[in-house]
Amino acid sequence: MVSSAAPSSTDANGTHFVSTLPGPNHSWQVTLSGKVIAITGANQGIGLGLAEVCLANNAAHVYSLDISEPGEPFRELASKNADRLSYIKTDVTSEESVAAALDKIVSEQGRLDGMVANAGATKHQPALDFTLDQVKRLFELNVFGAWICATAAARVFIRLGIKGAIVLTASMTSYRPNRAAPSAPYGGTKAAVRNMTHTLAMEWAQYGIRVNSVSPGFVKTALTYYVETSPDWDTKMKYYGGMPRLALPQELGGAYVYLLSDTATYTTGIDIPIAGVVGAW
């Protein structure tokens, strides 16, 4: 594994820069070998599935930054990956909490290579039934939480001179409504995340930091259990088109691994929809 640390320079204003070009001995294998990855909300659901795929692709260490306590699925994955999966209790809506978690990772591993800002929540109900407080809570977690994690990771990468990767979890609802379970505020939060990705990628490219997002469609988690039990599920799938099923969380992992890997050194500012074509556009 070739380190993603790169020669650096400082301009007249004291701003630190790293080369954005791959090194002369760069490996083009899609792998996370030697990389330390932080994933928010990885104690369950999509985040845990992503942790599993990162570990399967030889990540040196994966940290779950989550406000909840780990359950049996997390402990089972940890037992299969001795000393490579850890949990740090973290409130992603707190700058202090996220900064402390990343400092802990760097103190233990000496580096941080990737941040997956995945933690989020949804609430499905008609728009006129939402209270303003409910809307604000969704934006605080989904948008402000992603912002806090991305900016905190960028500061660490710049300080360490590491060409790190940030991947934010957006959603297909950032492109179009979810007819199966509408939520105008949730779609709005994910559109903000996807849009923010492009500008952060533009601003931080000078440091060799890449910022991308992934937009999942229907994924089988504790938050979407009700979709398949809907009495008109088959009818909805008929008109949606595409693969008539929910994705496993692990089926998203390949996109995240690619975006976190050194193979993607020129991939930044994009969103990858993973929706089985279901209602893609």
TrEMBL record:
Q: Which segments show compositional bias classed as Polar residues?
A: 1-18
* UniProt keyword annotations, A-Z: NADP, Oxidoreductase
**From which source organism is this entry?**
Thermothielavioides terrestris (strain ATCC 38088 / NRRL 8126)
Q: Quick one: where's region Disordered? A: 1-20
Lineage of the organism: Eukaryota, Fungi, Dikarya, Ascomycota, Pezizomycotina
Family membership: Belongs to the short-chain dehydrogenases/reductases (SDR) family.
Annotated Pfam families: adh_short_C2 (PF13561)
Q: Which GO terms describe its molecular function?
A: oxidoreductase activity, acting on NAD(P)H, oxygen as acceptor; oxidoreductase activity, acting on the CH-OH group of donors, NAD or NADP as acceptor
Protein's UniProt name: Uncharacterized protein
